[in-house]
Amino acid sequence: MRWTIARTAAEATPCDVLVVACLQMDGRPDRQGWSALDKAAGGALTVLAGTEVFNAAAESMHIASGGRSKAPWLIFLGLGKVDDLTQEVLRRSVAMAIKQARTLHAGRVGLALPWRGMSDLAQDAVARSCAEGGELGLFVASTHKSDRRKADVDPREVKVCAVGADVAAVRDGLTQGFDLAAGCLQARTLVNMPPNELTPARLASEARRISRQEGYLCSVHGEAWMKKQGMGGILGVGQGSRKESKLIVMERKPGGRGKVPTIALVGKGVTFDTGGISLKPGSNMHEMKGDMGGSAAVLGAAMILARRNVRARLLVIVPTVENMPDGNALRPGDVLVMASGKTVEVLNTDAEGRLILADALHHAKTLGADVIIDAATLTGACVVALGEHFAGLFSNDGPLSAAIDAAGGDVFERVWPMPVIEEHHKLMESPIADLKNIGGGRWAGASTAAAFLEEFVDEDTPWAHLDIAGPSWTDSGSSLGPKGASGFGARLIARAVERYLEDPAARGDG
Ligand code: BES
Ligand code: ZN
Ligand code: ZN
Question: What is the pTM of this model?
Fold first, then answer.
């Protein structure tokens, strides 16, 4: 869908459906700014303001005839009270309205906003939220039904009326929102794919496609190469699968001169997690097709960051495997030699994510990473602790975690700080190797997993780990997306990188 700017007043903007976003005042739609439109629509808004039919509460709507305006149909869209207006309220509301326009078969949608009334929100943020919400809301997960019902066709264009607004800021905001949504939708699509289709090789070909599209160099390493690098973690987890394990490495350098930092994004790419020999129970095992949610998040973030043209060298590193039980599978009791040289006693083959990430984190350092962010559907313990609406944030660096936390607020992908301390590291000590891959008891499972990862990161490299096992998949769904893959992490990580690069404290000169 294209997002364009109309320099015409709402009632003079030709379109099939005009969305008129109204703030609420004293429990009624605030008519300020809409008098010409109201007149063109035969006083529809005045009539509504005198009834209970439409009170402009957030995420409420009312459809009316367009009267003498340039649109046959109007959707009055409630934004709620101005004091409660946030970017997320805008995203959700606009998502609802655009979906409604789709069911009305609108090809061109007009979007009129009360620019003057929303003075507390920056205009680029308003525009960004509109495009982000509209794009996310239209997402429909593809199915594999042989009987293909014809779905409603998306509108071709949304024209945002920018009279009374700073056109440059609105234009920039719309582009930002569109790009953020594109990364998130890419992540959703990958996570929703069935595991017989999305194998490690397929994930690698998707990464190649994204790289071509967005200007990354992409190398895909196979098992022979990983053997030479001594990547015992990735090879060990993948050895029970018929499908070859891969290490995907993408790289993008910005144009221009001058020294730039290298930021590495590392994502867990387990295309299916049976648990291996430590087999998972059968009941919800199919959900483990989503165990590559971390890799989807970093690939989505990579798309966004390339389009934002950030001043950093970006590395995207995805270890991808299938965790299967088999005659050749990893056993509990096996000892692995990792790429860093550390040895790991495997006590549970279901704690596989940390094993593949350990080699990938080490590889990030080898390739010169100054900063590392990893994302992974790593532990059930994190889901128990934080549920579906928060990712766990573990970090050794203040400015980096501050950037991620603030980014979470920007895009409403919320994170909660979790501890990794010496005592958690102690729980990962093995009597026979440098480390073991589980903490022993049931306590602090998300933190002991993070402590394991930290063993493969240099102390002086700012590092953050996002455990997205909870929010990567949603059982509730919302106006911004159906049940299933949420795409969590793509927008969050991209915004976090942007914020981190803008922060002088992060560069050490603050
Ligand atoms: N992929 C799972 C974690 C997970 C659980 C993701 C639920 C999404 C939803 C991970 O590989 C795993 O199985 N972790 C184990 C670790 C344990 C054996 C220490 C877990 O969380 O139970
Ligand atoms: Zn597992
Ligand atoms: Zn897993």
Answer: 0.98
